[in-house]
Write a structure and sequence with these properties.
By secondary structure, the chain is mainly alpha-helical. It has ten helices and no strands. Helix 1 crosses helix 4. The longest helix has 43 residues. The protein is flat and about 100 Å long. It starts with 11 loop residues before the first helix and ends in a 14-residue tail after the last helix.
Length: 241
């Protein structure tokens, strides 16, 4: 049974009024949140526009740039952003500039027909130094050379990967190929393999690195020999119990 101090239930009308009032408070809070979020979003857009117009150098520092930005009237439009938020947006902007600059320099190297897998910076530098993308990338030649070296390394890596994939598609090689190459029919078998490789551009990408190409081919044939004949198509793995 209920105690004598138990609360009396609210009359239906009062209960509804309380619910309506609570809903109104929640709605007002939601509107305030949305207004605040919208205002912050606007402040961020103003600041990004300011960065876009004023900061073109990917080597710019926040400490020096901040003084110049403060002199622009748009700085006040971003007053809702605190110092950390502004610095974060600045660093993201610098990052974008740096990546854009790298992509542009990479395109320059891709477009230069003189660049091969064995090219040196010294010879390529002479070919591209008058292109505006050359000087825009960096004033420091060591930085340009480092980016060139990364570019060549990536190209070599991709060339090797493509060549290895092509080897898996050769129908005329098997676990017996290594043995055939050691025997009297070795020369004709190698001609057959090379014929297949030269019919696909992936087989030509390592022409500048013939020793590396031959090593990859030899390793692949040795691997086939080591693992022996493939299982018959109908063979299935024993089911795990």
């Amino acid at each position: 049974s209920s105690g004598i101090n138990a609360e009396w239930p609210l009359r239906p009308g009062k209960k509804r009024e309380g619910e309506v009032a609570r809903k109104q408070v929640d709605q007002n809070r939601e509107w305030e949140r949305e207004r605040g979020a919208h205002a912050r979003e606007e402040a961020q857009q103003h600041f990004l526009a300011l960065l876009h117009d004023m900061v073109r150098d990917a080597d710019a520092s926040w400490r020096k740039t901040r003084k110049q930005l403060r002199d622009d009237s748009r700085w006040e439009l971003a007053a809702l952003l605190d110092a950390d938020q502004k610095e974060k947006l600045f660093l993201e902007h610098i990052d974008n500039l740096s990546n854009k600059r790298k992509r542009s320099f990479k395109r320059l190297l891709d477009e230069c027909e003189h660049v091969t897998l064995t090219s040196t910076w010294k010879e390529i530098r002479r070919k591209i130094k008058h292109d505006p993308r050359f000087s825009k990338f960096s004033e420091d030649d060591k930085e340009r050379e480092a980016e060139f070296s990364r570019h060549i390394k990536d190209r070599v890596s991709l060339a090797k990967s493509d060549f290895k994939q092509l080897l898996k598609e050769i129908k005329c090689v098997s676990h017996k190929s290594k043995e055939i190459l050691r025997g009297p029919n070795g020369d004709s078998h190698m001609r057959e393999i090379r014929q297949f490789l030269t019919n696909d551009k992936r087989g030509l990408v390592l022409d500048d690195l013939p020793e590396e190409r031959d090593r990859i081919l030899d390793d692949y044939l040795a691997e086939l020999e080591k693992f022996g004949p493939p299982p018959p198509p109908t063979a299935t793995r024993p089911s795990k119990r």
